[in-house]
Design goal:
Layout lengths: L1 H12 L9 E2 L3 H13 L4 H23 L4 E2 L1 H34 L14
Helix pairs in contact: 2-3, 2-4, 3-4
Length: 122
Protein backbone atom coordinates (compact mmCIF):
# COMPACT_ATOMS: atom_id res chain seq x y z
CA UNK A 1 0.00 0.00 0.00
CA UNK A 2 2.83 2.40 0.64
CA UNK A 3 4.18 1.97 -2.89
CA UNK A 4 0.82 2.99 -4.31
CA UNK A 5 0.79 6.03 -2.02
CA UNK A 6 4.28 6.99 -3.16
CA UNK A 7 3.29 6.73 -6.81
CA UNK A 8 0.17 8.77 -6.18
CA UNK A 9 2.16 11.40 -4.28
CA UNK A 10 4.69 11.68 -7.11
CA UNK A 11 1.92 12.18 -9.61
CA UNK A 12 0.11 14.80 -7.56
CA UNK A 13 3.05 16.65 -6.03
CA UNK A 14 5.33 16.49 -9.07
CA UNK A 15 3.01 16.82 -12.06
CA UNK A 16 4.52 16.64 -15.50
CA UNK A 17 4.72 20.11 -16.94
CA UNK A 18 3.27 20.05 -20.41
CA UNK A 19 5.01 22.15 -23.03
CA UNK A 20 3.37 25.47 -23.84
CA UNK A 21 0.99 25.11 -26.75
CA UNK A 22 1.98 27.38 -29.60
CA UNK A 23 -0.73 29.55 -31.09
CA UNK A 24 -1.04 30.36 -34.77
CA UNK A 25 0.50 33.68 -35.67
CA UNK A 26 -2.18 36.35 -36.18
CA UNK A 27 -2.96 36.99 -39.85
CA UNK A 28 -0.36 34.48 -41.14
CA UNK A 29 -2.90 32.63 -43.28
CA UNK A 30 -4.48 35.89 -44.40
CA UNK A 31 -1.10 37.21 -45.50
CA UNK A 32 -0.43 34.00 -47.43
CA UNK A 33 -3.79 34.25 -49.21
CA UNK A 34 -3.20 37.93 -50.03
CA UNK A 35 0.24 37.09 -51.40
CA UNK A 36 -1.15 34.34 -53.61
CA UNK A 37 -3.92 36.66 -54.85
CA UNK A 38 -1.39 39.40 -55.60
CA UNK A 39 0.63 37.05 -57.81
CA UNK A 40 -2.40 35.54 -59.55
CA UNK A 41 -4.10 38.90 -60.06
CA UNK A 42 -0.84 40.77 -60.67
CA UNK A 43 -1.83 41.73 -64.21
CA UNK A 44 -4.63 43.84 -62.80
CA UNK A 45 -4.69 46.66 -60.26
CA UNK A 46 -6.22 44.25 -57.73
CA UNK A 47 -2.91 42.38 -57.48
CA UNK A 48 -1.07 45.57 -56.63
CA UNK A 49 -3.57 46.43 -53.90
CA UNK A 50 -3.60 42.95 -52.34
CA UNK A 51 0.20 42.87 -52.36
CA UNK A 52 0.44 46.18 -50.50
CA UNK A 53 -2.14 45.04 -47.93
CA UNK A 54 -0.20 41.79 -47.47
CA UNK A 55 3.04 43.71 -46.84
CA UNK A 56 1.43 45.99 -44.26
CA UNK A 57 -0.11 43.07 -42.37
CA UNK A 58 3.11 41.06 -42.50
CA UNK A 59 5.05 43.92 -40.96
CA UNK A 60 2.71 43.95 -37.96
CA UNK A 61 2.77 40.16 -37.59
CA UNK A 62 6.57 40.05 -37.81
CA UNK A 63 6.77 42.53 -34.94
CA UNK A 64 4.45 40.34 -32.86
CA UNK A 65 6.55 37.26 -33.66
CA UNK A 66 9.84 39.00 -32.83
CA UNK A 67 8.55 39.87 -29.35
CA UNK A 68 7.72 36.24 -28.40
CA UNK A 69 8.80 33.69 -31.03
CA UNK A 70 8.24 30.75 -28.68
CA UNK A 71 4.52 31.51 -28.40
CA UNK A 72 3.62 31.47 -32.08
CA UNK A 73 3.56 29.02 -34.94
CA UNK A 74 3.06 29.49 -38.73
CA UNK A 75 6.04 31.76 -39.30
CA UNK A 76 6.63 29.92 -42.59
CA UNK A 77 3.23 31.01 -43.87
CA UNK A 78 4.05 34.57 -42.91
CA UNK A 79 7.36 34.50 -44.79
CA UNK A 80 5.80 32.88 -47.87
CA UNK A 81 3.00 35.46 -47.94
CA UNK A 82 5.52 38.28 -47.51
CA UNK A 83 7.62 37.08 -50.46
CA UNK A 84 4.58 36.46 -52.64
CA UNK A 85 3.30 39.96 -51.82
CA UNK A 86 6.59 41.48 -52.98
CA UNK A 87 6.49 39.44 -56.21
CA UNK A 88 2.85 40.43 -56.75
CA UNK A 89 3.66 44.11 -56.24
CA UNK A 90 6.45 43.88 -58.82
CA UNK A 91 4.17 42.15 -61.33
CA UNK A 92 1.36 44.62 -60.63
CA UNK A 93 3.70 47.60 -60.96
CA UNK A 94 5.07 46.38 -64.29
CA UNK A 95 1.56 45.65 -65.55
CA UNK A 96 0.41 49.11 -64.51
CA UNK A 97 3.34 50.72 -66.34
CA UNK A 98 2.54 48.62 -69.41
CA UNK A 99 -1.12 49.64 -69.38
CA UNK A 100 -0.18 53.30 -68.94
CA UNK A 101 2.21 53.04 -71.90
CA UNK A 102 -0.49 51.44 -74.08
CA UNK A 103 -2.97 54.12 -72.97
CA UNK A 104 -0.56 56.91 -73.90
CA UNK A 105 0.22 55.33 -77.26
CA UNK A 106 -3.48 55.07 -78.06
CA UNK A 107 -4.18 58.57 -76.74
CA UNK A 108 -1.44 60.37 -78.65
CA UNK A 109 -1.41 58.13 -81.73
CA UNK A 110 1.05 55.35 -82.23
CA UNK A 111 1.98 56.12 -85.84
CA UNK A 112 2.78 59.34 -87.63
CA UNK A 113 1.14 58.31 -90.86
CA UNK A 114 -1.66 56.00 -91.74
CA UNK A 115 -0.73 52.91 -93.74
CA UNK A 116 -3.18 51.51 -96.21
CA UNK A 117 -3.70 47.82 -96.77
CA UNK A 118 -1.56 47.98 -99.91
CA UNK A 119 1.48 49.07 -97.87
CA UNK A 120 1.75 52.65 -99.16
CA UNK A 121 1.59 55.68 -96.90
CA UNK A 122 -1.58 57.71 -97.39
Amino acid sequence: MTEEMEEYREQVVNPVIMPLRRRPLPNATTILVLGICSVVLGCFAVGLVTGIIGLVLSRKSKAIYRDNPELYDDYGNLQAGFILSIIGICIGGLATLYYMFIFLVVLFGGTTGAVSTSGYTV
